[in-house]
Design goal:
The complex is a heterodimer of chains A (335) and B (549). By secondary structure, chain A is an alpha/beta fold. Helix content of chain A is 40%, strand content 16%. Chain A folds into two domains: 29-126 and 251-305, D-Maltodextrin-Binding Protein, domain 2 (3-Layer(aba) Sandwich); 127-250 and 322-331, D-Maltodextrin-Binding Protein, domain 2 (3-Layer(aba) Sandwich). Chain A contains twelve helices and ten strands. In chain A, α6 (166-179) crosses α7 (181-194) and α6 crosses α12 (322-331). By secondary structure, chain B is mainly α. Chain B contains 25 helices and no strands. Chain B has helices spanning 2-11, 25-33, 49-76, 78-85, 88-121, 127-135, 142-152, 159-184, 187-195, 200-211, 213-229, 232-236, 242-253, 257-281, 306-335, 342-376, 380-393, 397-410, 419-443, 447-455, 460-471, 473-488, 492-497, 505-514, 518-546. The two termini of chain B are 27 Å apart. Mean pLDDT of chain B is 83; it is low at 1-43. The chains are: A alpha/beta (335), B mainly alpha (549). At the A-B interface, α1, β2, α3, α8 and α12 of A face α5, α13, α16, α18 and α21 of B.
Chain lengths: 335, 549
């Protein structure tokens, strides 16, 4: 009897634990594989839920792991929407044929420059490559004219990057498209000798600020985000925009797409439409993400250098090759 | 002091290592060797078939990640494998990893032996308090140690930073078994050596230290395996090891062959450590023979060495507890009320507790058959099965997670990203912790009770339940606490395997600190430490009890 009782108690306890498992496997609402900054997507999801009542469950990760993960999952992917920081991950999923076409009215909200001709995904935000440098260590005339200059032996031990991040890999993919495979491989090889690796762009900026290193190749918004907070990790930092159609002036498009296998296609499309519409783009203008807004007529945060002044190189986002980039970087010993 | 250092180095030429499981392992071995042999040879019998089947099932499950890596290697083909394994980057990582282990482990051994001797065998003032303070750093996850150090010394990086933080974060793993072993030593042996004319130093060297061999080996292996598996600690201080490189590859390519091949090399490193431990540990007997019981030890008077000894303990405590507490406190103060996002924190806390409890339960249940067989019906099959469990327990979480992600995606899709899979991963990773504790307490439950219950007509499972399983409950609880502690601080496998929407304390901490928002990360660090402290206390009490005091 006692035995039966304790078995019963044990089984009940286990059952309660399994049932009460706090909001882990939600079946309602949409699941977003989010490679964007957690705080930005959180603000987006909250705004969207507030307006439409549709629940959003976010799984956070990076561009590359999610894109490869979605390909591995195939049509069985639990994700409804995929958001990235850069385009190569979008291209990977699109090439695998796993995106549903984006609704026409969503596409109509974004200029042609910020979406692929295929209409399989759409730009939701953008970011610019910069050379963040420590202004007590470098003066304006000592700055590199081009990102390619950083391969020069004179830059040995003087600059940093976060090679394991999708951001830097997107910059390399632009370089690959602009200058070809041989030049990219050479540049990466020189980079391996010259640069110092950090994990994450914030960490690179922090090190630049602390004077551990003179400069680093990162995206622009880390600086503005930190300035908006306490500025303690950016007070000695200045941004250098390469401009001049340099590979280092690359503007990367953050994309959003709806999975063809989505179980909630209507809600997923609605989310994408909201992101590219007024609601989502306003979050970029007023929030603390400091990424560029890309919607038609949408304004970016006034603190930023306007997108049109950046003289970014013409890069075809639909052919950025992430696989080739990781192969080249692995071969160069950066990964 | 100096002869001690030399002695340890001579005893452990490379990086001594120990029993293939967990921190109480060596203490348990010692405890077991002293138990009455009624449960051993004389009482050997055959294990019930269902128990054997259950144990085989668990062992096979444990081998899945290993089989997976071999399978991927075979599938990838030799040419690609060799291109991915024999490249300069792997060489760099290998040098980094080997240097890290080869430097950290001996330093940890010296430090732990010194601390253990001071707290157990000397008349150091406040020895009991110091003993607890030497165990308490266990409550602080390794990546929180690192976070604290990077805050304190910005720009700290590289090999020596890795060694420093590793030693600080992991020395309790060695301190615990060594101090437990020291406590159990029979002073008669030392008396005999002294009577034969050896001075105190040579007594320590030739009599005490050799008896600590099991404990040092066990603890060192444990430290070594943790060094190989740790991720967060080395990311903060920018030191690349195989584990960080595997995670980098995973982040760049998900489950690409390069990540799996790096995992293969890492697994080989684990095997090298396991093999070294077997070589160094030897097969000597450490149990006391003869009638009567060992009397209490006398504590050595430190005399003039008291002040320097106290200084060593103060410095260790400041580095291992002071730095993290001051830093977390500092960030909490800087962040103020704004960083206590109670909704978010509450959710993370609930999910973490749930995962920790469920995982601990599963690991303990899975360890039960194996633990029973290893005590009641030991034999070659049992040793083989148990070995399987320990081997998988020594694999880094990232390797196990990588295997389970790929297997569930390719073969068992309904299990993909489910609670079930993450719990299985936890059970595999932490099975040895549960096994060790269970085994020790089953050994103390008289087999006669089980037989009596059977002969009174209870069916086998019920007989087992009403006797041995109940009596082993304290051990099971200690094991569950250990497993829960591990799960609570687990990061890499949780990130890769958890169901959608999961955000544990460790994940939240990691994501904030990745954005350099150290103040927002502080409450999570604080809660993790606060929840781990009671479990660490339990562990400390358990280790004292096992050593008979």
């Amino acid at each position: 009897m006692k035995y039966a009782l304790s078995t019963l108690a044990g089984a009940t306890a286990l059952a309660i634990m399994l049932i009460a498992s706090p909001s882990m496997a939600e079946d309602d609402g949409i699941i977003v594989y989010n490679a964007q900054h957690e705080s930005l997507t959180k603000a987006w999801a909250e705004g969207f839920t507030k307006e439409t009542g549709i629940k959003v469950t976010v799984r956070n990760g990076g561009d590359s792991d999610f894109s490869n993960q979605i390909v591995a999952e195939g049509t069985a992917s639990p994700a409804d929407v995929f958001l990235t920081e850069n385009s190569p991950a979008m291209v990977l999923v699109e090439t695998a044929g796993l995106f549903a076409p984006v609704d026409a009215d969503t596409l109509a909200q974004v200029p042609q420059d910020y979406q692929p001709a295929s209409g399989k995904w759409v730009g939701v935000a953008a970011r610019s490559t910069v050379f963040a440098y420590n202004k007590t260590k470098l003066t304006a005339d000592q700055l590199p004219k081009s990102m390619l200059d950083l391969a020069d032996p004179s830059w040995k031990g003087r600059w940093a990057a976060s090679p394991s991040g999708a951001d830097f890999q997107a910059i390399v993919s632009a370089l690959l498209q602009l200058k070809g495979e041989a030049a990219t491989a050479d540049w990466l090889k020189a980079m391996k000798t010259n640069f110092t690796a950090y994990k994450g762009n914030s960490t690179v900026m922090k090190a630049v600020n602390a004077g551990e290193i003179e400069g680093g190749v990162i995206y622009h918004y880390y600086y503005f985000g930190d300035q908006a907070k306490t500025g303690e990790n950016s007070k000695n930092v200045e941004l250098h925009y390469f401009k001049n159609q340099d590979p280092g002036a690359f503007v990367s498009i953050s994309g959003g797409g709806v999975l063809a296998s989505s179980k909630h296609p209507k809600e997923a499309q609605a989310f994408l439409k909201w992101l590219t519409g007024k609601g989502g783009q306003d979050v970029l203008k007023t929030g603390d993400s400091f990424e560029y807004a890309v919607g038609k007529g949408a304004e970016s945060n006034p603190k930023l250098v306007p997108l049109v002044d950046l003289q970014a190189p013409k890069v075809d986002a639909t052919t950025l090759n992430s696989k080739k980039v990781t192969d080249l970087m692995t071969a160069a010993g950066l990964l | 002091m100096f002869p001690t250092v030399i002695a340890v180095f001579q005893l452990l030429p490379l990086d001594g290592s120990g029993t293939a499981s967990d921190l109480m392992q060596s203490a348990v071995d010692l405890a077991r060797s002293g138990l009455p042999s009624g449960t051993g040879r004389r009482a050997r019998r055959r294990a019930p078939l269902w128990l054997v089947i259950a144990a085989i099932f668990v062992a096979l499950l444990a081998l899945v990640p290993l089989a997976f890596i071999i399978w991927i290697a075979v599938q990838t083909g030799w040419e690609t494998v060799s291109a991915l394994v024999f490249r300069p980057r792997v060489g760099e990582l290998l040098v980094n990893t080997v240097l890290l282990v080869a430097l950290s482990v001996p330093i940890t051994i010296v430090l732990s032996v010194a601390l253990a001797w001071l707290t157990e065998r000397s008349d150091l003032p406040g020895a009991r308090l110091w003993a607890w303070l030497c165990v308490a750093p266990l409550a602080i996850p390794a990546f929180v140690h690192s976070y604290a150090w990077v805050t304190m010394v910005p720009g700290l990086h590289g090999l020596w930073a890795g060694v420093l933080v590793s030693v600080i974060a992991y020395f309790p793993f060695l301190y615990l078994p060594v101090s437990a072993a020291l406590r159990r030593l029979d002073p008669a042996l030392e008396d005999a050596a002294a009577a034969l004319g050896l001075g105190p130093r040579r007594v320590f060297w030739r009599v005490v230290l050799p008896q600590l061999r099991l404990a040092i080996c066990g603890g060192s292996l444990l430290v070594g395996l943790h060094l190989l598996a740790e991720y967060g600690l080395y990311v903060f201080i920018r030191f690349d090891t195989f584990t960080t490189a595997i995670v980098d590859q995973f982040q760049s390519t998900f489950n690409g062959p390069a990540a799996n091949m790096l995992a293969g090399v890492l697994v080989s490193c684990c095997f090298v450590l396991l093999g070294l431990e077997v070589l160094v540990r030897g097969e000597e007997r450490y149990a006391r023979v003869g009638s009567g019981a060992a009397r209490h030890q006398q504590r050595t008077s430190l005399g003039r060495a008291t002040i320097p000894s106290l200084l060593l303990l103060v410095v260790t405590t400041l580095l291992a507890l002071g730095v993290p507490f001051v830093t977390i406190g500092g960030w909490l103060a800087a962040g103020g009320a704004a960083v206590w996002r109670l909704n978010e924190i509450g959710l993370a806390l609930g999910q973490t507790l749930f995962l920790a409890l469920a995982g601990a339960l599963l690991a303990t249940v899975a360890a039960m058959p194996m633990a029973w067989i290893s005590i009641r019906a030991p034999g070659p099959l049992q040793r083989l099965l148990e070995g399987c469990n320990y081997i998988v327990g020594s694999l880094p979480g990232v390797v196990i997670a990588l295997a389970l992600v790929t297997i569930t995606v390719r073969i068992a899709l309904p299990l993909y990203q489910t609670l079930f899979t993450i719990l299985v991963a936890y059970a595999l990773m932490f099975l040895p912790r549960a096994l060790v504790s269970l085994r020790a307490s089953i050994a103390q439950a008289p087999v006669e009770l089980e037989r009596a219950a059977s002969s009174l007509g209870r069916p086998p499972l019920q007989a087992l339940w009403s006797t041995t399983i109940r009596l082993s409950a304290p051990g099971a609880a200690a094991g569950m606490a250990l497993v829960a502690l591990g799960i609570m601080n687990e990061l890499t496998a949780t990130q890769m395997l958890a169901p959608n929407g999961t955000r544990t304390l460790a994940m939240a901490f990691w994501s904030y600190s990745g954005e350099i928002d150290y103040a927002s990360a502080a409450p999570y660090a604080f809660i993790m430490v606060a929840m781990s402290l009671p479990l660490t206390w339990l562990l400390y009490v358990q280790s004292k009890r096992m050593a008979g005091r």
